[in-house]
Amino acid sequence: MLSILAVVAFGFVPVARAVPTPDQDPFYAASVDLGAHPAGAVLRTRSIALYGLPLPVSAWQVQYRTNDANDWPIPGMATVLVPNWPWFGPGQRPLLSYQIAEDSLGARCAPSYALRGGGDLGGVNTYIDTPFIAEALWRGWAVVTSDYEGPDARFLDGVDSGRAVLDGIRAARALAPNGIGPASPIGAWGYSGGAFATLWAAQIQPEYAPDIQFAGITAGGVPADWPAMAHGVDGTVQAGLAMLVLAAIVKNEPDSGVPELLNERGRTAVAEDATACGPDFVIKYVNAHVDDFAAVPDVLGHPDVRAATDRQELGGAAPVAPMYLYHSTTDDVIPVAGFTDLLARYCAQGADISSVHSALPGHNVTAVGEAAGAMSFLADRFAGVPVASGCYGR
Fold this sequence. Notes:
CATH class of the largest domain: Alpha Beta
Largest sheet: 10 strands, mixed
Low-confidence stretches: 2-14
Helix content: 25-40%
Strand order of the largest sheet: 1-2-3-5-4-6-7-8-9-10
Radius of gyration: 20 Å
């Protein structure tokens, strides 16, 4: 999830390039024969100059076929990054699927647009995550990061997000640049909104993408118990996140009954914010109360809202890959209780998890402070170091 500190950090991003937005860029348009290709098939590619990450790497944008939650073919978009030096480790070069927290409702908020230099506040999460991507590249790993919310920017859609992640991995393997091959060990990592997409991909992998075998999964600041998260930030400087959740439900599930729970002010706000990025919500709704936009009291606790968020909760199936999951005990954006409950559900289903209830203060500090542990876990998995079975925490 985006925080107010992340919005402030955007002020330190270099001046952007003149890059057309995805809805104005023909490269993003769906191929006419999209449905004739299998999931993960590469449809078009272009080499790009990577923005904000001055490293000796090659970078491509890759359009691929994926499927939405209704099994309709849709175009996916990924950015594939590969170091310009040989892989000196054992086997083939590892491939890390890194999920940036899109947390948005508009195509201009996509990571691929930001990594090419798109000048929009919606790219702030991408720029904040580039140090983690850079560390993976310096280790010699290839990185694929997908616009997993899809062309319609469906925030809070687990199946859509998971499928886009998995098909982005397939597309990166099909592109096969500079050392990536069928035997490349595959890992996945995401924090906050990126953790949501990462874990949804891991959950649906056995059924949707049995050809992909994860060596390891890392995720932190994990969104679990969406109503609790929204209630927690309501009326605070992070209140835009609660409004984002409500707007996403209205957009994604117009027949859920949730649109009818809004008052006139709420309907106007949702219409105005139909393509807004996460930072737009954070700035616009500082200290707002969601109930001021609703025709019923405690709209976040209404059965229709809870039914919609329940469909997006993690934990329905435990990933089969070993996992390293971490969360601050004082997370000021996503309450830790949901994380603890998710761990229990995964462990009850036989998952292999190393978990960390971090003493580091808050959501953002933990993203940085616990990254080394996540990276080390992935490095061990890529090196073939065995992992103990069962659940272990600290």
